[in-house]
Every structure is written in C-alpha cells, then in structure tokens.
Amino acid sequence: MSNIDPKVLRHRVESINTLPTVPSVLKRLSAVIEKPRITIVEISAFISNDPALTTKVLKMVNSAIYGFPGRIASVSHATMLLGLNVIKGLLLGVSVFELMQKTMSGLYEHSLACAIASRVIAQKKGMKEPEEVSVAGLLHDIGKVILTLEFAKEYEAAMGEAQEKRISIFEAEKNQFNATHADVGSWLAEKWRFPRNLVEVIEFHHRPALAKNAPMEAAIVHMADLLARARGFGFAGENFVPEINPMAFELLKLSDQDIQDVLQEMEDNMESAEDLS
C-alpha cells in the first residue's frame, strides 16, 4: 500500500517547472502556456523560435489525426485554424512524445490511436469542436508520463501489480499512490489553464459518469481508449482491455457500423501518424 500523501504528490506534480526529471523544453513550454492571458500571437512566436518544435507541430497538424492533411504550411496558419486550446494541447503532445518513448514504450502509439478515434467519434456525434476532443484523446494519459518520470520505482511496481493481479493500471496506481494518472493529468491540465471540459475529460476518462460539464467528451475519450487497446495499438500500462462504462455506452449509442468505421480510420491513419517521430 502507498505511503505517498496525495497532497504532497499534487504539490510535486504542480511544481513541474522545478522537477529535475522533466526536460527543459517541457519546463519552458509549461511556463509559457500557463500565463494567464497568453495570446495566439505569443504561442506562434514561441513555436516559431524553435525550429525542431515548428517541424513537429506542422507534421502533427498535417497528419491524419486532424483531417486536413498537407494543407497547413505555417505555424501562424495552424494556430489561427485550430485555436489556442488545440494548439496548446498539440504542443504538449509533441513535447512529451520523446518522454513517452523513454518512459513507457508504446504509450505514444496508444495516445495517437486514441486521438484519431476520439476525433472520428466526435465527428459522428456532431460535436462542434472535434479537434478539442482529439487533443483530449492525445493527452488523456499524460499523468502516466509524469508519474513514471518522477516515481519510476513506484510506477514500475504499479505495472507489476497490474500484471500480477490482472487489475487495471488505474487500480494499481491507486494502491501505489493514493491517486491515479487521471488525477495527475487533470492537476497539470488545470495548472496549464486548459478549459474546464478538457480538464474533466482527462480526469474522468475512466469514469465518464462523473463528468459534470463534458459527459459526452469524457464518454468519447473513454470509448476511444478502449478501442485503441482492443485493436492493440501501443501499450497503455496493462495487457487487458477494461470493460466499457455502461453510461458511456448508453450516451454514445454507436452502432456496429460506427465502431467498424472508427477501427478502420485508426487502421488507415496510424501508419502516417507513427511517422511523426
């Protein structure tokens, strides 16, 4: 059982800018995106000043994840088109990409598949901002990256426990940390001034019935997460597919054909998405 106090854990997570384990690009980015009134112009300038980041962002924006492949040539065009929240989320996605590769092999592939599936389901449900739902899919497991970076030994123990007892990584994290990757991700999303809906989706993607402001978005990412696991894209910390939340199933009312379409879209697009490295 854990002897980590959740308050201490939260404080450490929120002090991400000073954590020795966190790479400098993420610290710099964190400082920029949590400014109270950051503008699109400032974000564009921040990205454009870093050639490697510019390349990654444009690759991501033009990939199959966003449905307008090959048409966006500049960072300013991308930020205008996608808006502040999506660009902030994308920036985090590309910045933690290398971290994900190092911390948990397969987590980035899982997150990309989840982002694609989230966008397709959001479009099927007629959501106004499918890209925002897609970003929630991309970032839903960001808490795992921070936990693995900061508490490598304990996180390995949680993964071992999940495998041994055939429980979800979510349950094993609760035993190890008195908190889960969903909690950690939502604390960061709040600190980074993401919109309430995005914070909620990250917090409740395993328990969408608890989402007050964004139950549909939480249900979508929950379903996308399970479909990505079922289809075997990447690795999310344990080897079995948890059961779907009945409320999410009821809310989404996806037909067999819808599910086929989502799986097909993941299948078709994962190859180009995986070239983003």
Task: Please tell me about this protein's structure.
- The protein is built from 16 helices and no strands.
- By secondary structure, it is mainly α.
- α8 (130-139) crosses α13 (196-204) and α8 crosses α14.
- It is globular and about 50 Å long.
- The model has no long low-confidence stretch (mean pLDDT 86).
Q: How many beta-strand runs?
A: 0
Give the end-to-end Cα distance, rounded to a whole number of Å: 37 Å
Residue fraction in strands: under 5%
Q: Roughly how many Å is the radius of gyration?
A: 17 Å
How many individual helices?
A: 16
Series of secondary-structure elements, N-terminal to C-terminal? HHHHHHHHHHHHHHHH
Mean pLDDT: 86
What gross morphology would you assign?
globular
Helix content: 55-70%
Task: Tell me about the largest β-sheet.
Answer: none
Query: Any low-confidence stretches, pLDDT <50, length ≥5?
Result: none
Question: How does the helix and strand content classify structurally?
Answer: mainly alpha
